[in-house]
Amino acid sequence: MNLLNHKLIKPVLSGALLSLILQSSNALSAPSEGQQLFESMCATCHAKDLSGGAGFNLKDETWVHGDQPSQIKANIKKGFSNAGMPAFGAIYNDQQISSIVDYILSKRQGLANLTYKIYHLDENAPASFAIIKDLKVQKSGSLTTNVMDFALPEAKNYIIEFAGDLYAPQEQAGQIFAMVYKELFEIEIDGQIIKPSKQEWLQVAWPIKAGKQHIKIRYSTVGTNPNNKKQFAFFVNNQELTQKLFGISMPGKQFLNSATVNIKADTQPQVVRKKIVNLPTSSIAVGFPEKINYAFNSKNCAINGVWTGDLLNIGPNIEGRGRDGGVILGDWVFHSPQSISPAQGQCVFDKYNRQGNPSFVYYLDNNQYAVKVTAESASSLVLTYQLIKGKNTQFTLNLPELKNAEFTSQDGSIANNQFSTQAKIGKTYAIHLTLKGGK
Questions:
Q1: Are 305 and 292 in contact (CB under 8 A)?
Q2: Which of 241, 439, 406 lies closest to 333, judged by CA?
Q3: pLDDT surpasses 50 at 14
Q4: Phi/psi-derived region of residue 301, left when phi > 0, alpha when psi is between -120 and 50, beta in every other case
Q5: Per-residue pLDDT, 320
Q6: Alpha helices in 193-260 (DSSP H)
Q7: Integer Cα distance of 415 and 408 in angstroms
Q8: Domains of the chain in sequence order
Q9: Of 11, 70, 138, 275, whose CB has the highest number of CB atoms within 10 Å?
Q10: Is the pLDDT of residue 57 over 50?
Q11: Residue 101's closest CA among 60, 72, 139, 66?
Q12: Residues 29-51: tens digit of each pLDDT
């Protein structure tokens, strides 16, 4: 809930108090010291999103040198000279290193401190997990991999319970998603049994909280096929179930490891027409070697996404047989529902070329237009519009309101999040989108 817009709070805020709250809100949204230090010194080896490269993945469930704050801090200070990691204790003070540790832990995802218990069942046992209290634990232990393995039990009829801490994204709540068929599962979070939000053939989902939570996942063989190999793929998804964020079972991790098909624009523009998370299915993505990209929506003739970095990983789209969208390999500048879109007229998409840097041709009423986007640098795009045929007319575009970028043009006026000009047949009109702080 946005407190600034709450009907009981907003009317009583004084101008000074409202200004103070807004300043605090802006401060929270700014990069922390830990993030700034990490991105300037650590991201080269560990990647900006902490997913690893030359160095370890710093956000998954595997912590080779310990996952406690004191251990991480000591590792950063001392380094690992034999592995090419310098000792940052000679570069940063304790407070700075602590801020880096805080940032790393804020991005943590996956299971931790994972344990398991196995209970044997009679053939006629009821389809209930309440019977656990009357059963004896036949086998138990810790899973140093912090990944669920449903193939652990050697008995024919059993219940297995996994318990541990789940680190979900802190930004928003999500869902646990499982690819299972007519199986008996139960999920408990912080002592409360969670009901599925979705239960369909081969798909079950349970809502989870944001951030750290204690979780128990139970599975019973009652009523299942005894020949089932128990290869259950479990993931943490976003709340909309459009993106698998990470796997928490062995088949889930294996699935995502195979769902990596990166498309990059290394030497020339790349055009991709695949389903993309956060964009409509009618979007056509274009990437540039300058590491800045955009998407054009053929339904409404709008630029409905711009992002920096590499182009796309379309692996999830392929592996999910179209159910899952591809994901961008960088950071959003904006995405749908924000867009650069025609302010008037009914859009009818005409055509585009797939080779080289494409132009998108469309009609607004009886006028034919084309738009071509060019990358000036990693932080700047030029959108060039042209009235191809029809009649001279007023041409207006709605522009998204952006905090970290700005629009400029010498070919028309920009005011109130709109670009406007008197378009003439054959003439081109350029709009510059520039990221603030970009080179």
A1: no
A2: 406
A3: no
A4: left
A5: 64
A6: 250-258
A7: 10
A8: 31-106 (1.10.760.10), 110-257 (2.60.120.1560), 262-435 (no CATH)
A9: 275
A10: yes
A11: 72
A12: 456 888 888 888 888 889 888 87
CA–CA distance, 247 with 257 (Å, rounded to integer)? 9
CA dihedral 207→212→214→216, nearest 10 degrees, is 50
Q: What is the identity of the amino acid at 363?
A: Y
337 preceded by cis ω (within 30°)? yes
Residue 23, token pair as written in the block: 């300043």
What pLDDT is attached to residue 9? 36
* Secondary structure of residue 173 in the 3-state scheme: coil
Q: How far apart are CA 208 and CA 194, in angstroms?
A: 8
Contact predicate 325/349, CB 8 Å: no
Query: Strands across the sheet with 405-408, in order?
Result: 347-352, 359-364, 367-377, 380-389, 428-435, 405-408
Quick check: 210 pLDDT over 90?
yes
Contact indicator for 115, 162 with CB cutoff of 8 Å = yes
Residues 263, 266, 269: CA angle, nearest 5 degrees:
80
Q: What is the pLDDT of residues 260-276, one digit of tens each?
A: 889 999 999 999 999 99
Q: How far is CA 392 from the centre of its chain?
A: 43
Which residues 6+ apart lie within 8 Å of 85 measured at CB?
Answer: 45, 55, 79
Q: What are phi and psi of 188, to 5 degrees?
A: -125, 130
> What is the pTM assigned to this prediction?
0.72
Cα dihedral 60, 64, 66, 69 sign: negative
- CA–CA gap between residue 318 and residue 146 (Å, rounded): 27
pLDDT 10s digits, 156-202: 899 999 999 999 998 889 999 998 888 899 999 999 999 999 998 88
Q: For residue 94, count other CB atoms closer than 10 A to its CB.
A: 10
- DSSP assignment of 93-158: -HHHHHHHHHHHHHT--EEEEEEEEEEE--TT--S-SGGGGGS-EEEEEE-TT-SB-TT---SSSE
How far does Cα 417 stand from its chain's mean position?
Answer: 27
| Average pLDDT, integer, range 216-245 | 87
Neighbours of 183 (CB within 10 A): 18
